[in-house]
Amino acid sequence: MTTEATAGTATEPGAVAPLLSASDLHITFPGRRGADPARAVDGVDLDIRPGEIVALVGESGCGKTTLARSLLGLVPPTSGRVTFGGQPLDYRSRALKAYRKRVQLVLQDPSGSLNPRHTVYEAVAEGLRIHKYGGDERAAVGGALSRAGLRPPERFFLRYPHELSGGQRQRVVIAGALVLQPELIVADEPVASLDASVRGEILALILRLRAELGLSALVVTHDLGLAWNIADRVAVMYLGRIVETGPVERVLTAPQHPYTQALLSVLPEAEGEPVVLTGEPPDPSRVPAGCRFHARCQVLAGGAAERAGVAEDCRTRDLPVLSGSAGAQVACHWAVARG
């Protein structure tokens, strides 16, 4: 990690090996009608340790869902690699099947991820049948539903998704992931479609599962408030790269990157005027030179970068990829100049 890309690195917590790690990950997609390839993920290092909850935060289109899908083995990287338990991810079908028993996906829309023709029992048992579970299927399904907060589980076995509330459907989806006893879950906007009264219950459930099962989680979200409530560490993503990362309390109480500051400024509890970013995020097939945020940066537009002597660097000089470690890091010329 070069000093240029950090603004005060926090002390690493004990030398615990990552459970899941991405190293110099790049994912590009062919451009449309002869356009340049889209750099959806453009150099990412990210570690998730055993029992750790990491929030991956950013606007729609920043690449966070593509990154999450790659960590699940659903999108092979163009370059770089993903490792799990210290071993590189093997993309052959048999190896991926074994991997997906250990790493499970929880989608944001329980209505869309549950087959309306399948009972709750069938939905939760599906993973066991795919992986040819040799134990007591009924006991495994009941145990998963109980851990997900649906008790007594037998009461829900023969129900269909349309007979459940939104929160109950999300618990069924979580039970379907838990039934295989994974070591890590990837939750893509896990409470986005739920009422505010239910959101806290689902977040509390994820925290309880971490405490009881030692479960690790990557939570993909656009909501920094959610990250504050659930994560140990946050990684803020913009245009294919992580631009700020660190312990959640440090990043969200003292954000260094102008993009993180802008995202935080619109939360209801934020003090001062919200920062209104101009324009839309750039096209990933046309990543700008220099800092990829500079065209929308309120610090550059307001003259603060000029006063710090880094305005030209902001427009022309690229920043290195942040390491995947747990320390607080930021990819911003202005933040580094401020010390």
TrEMBL record:
Keywords on record:
ATP-binding, Nucleotide-binding, Transport
| SMART domains cross-referenced by the UniProt entry | AAA (SM00382)
Kindly give the PROSITE patterns that the UniProt entry links to this protein: ABC_TRANSPORTER_1, ABC_TRANSPORTER_2
Domain named ABC transporter: which ranges?
20-264
A GO term for molecular function: ATP binding
- Per its UniProt entry, which superkingdom is the organism in? Bacteria
* InterPro entries linked to this entry: AAA+_ATPase (IPR003593), ABC_transp_ATP-bind (IPR050319), ABC_transporter-like_ATP-bd (IPR003439), ABC_transporter-like_CS (IPR017871), Oligopep_ABC_C (IPR013563), P-loop_NTPase (IPR027417)
Indicate yes or no for the key word Nucleotide-binding.
yes
Q: GO annotations under biological process?
A: peptide transport; transmembrane transport
Please report which protein family the annotation says this sequence is part of. Answer: Belongs to the ABC transporter superfamily.
Q: Which PANTHER family match?
A: D,D-DIPEPTIDE TRANSPORT ATP-BINDING PROTEIN DDPF-RELATED, TRANSPORT ATP-BINDING PROTEIN
Q: What is this protein called?
A: Peptide ABC transporter ATP-binding protein
Taxonomic source organism: Streptomyces silvensis
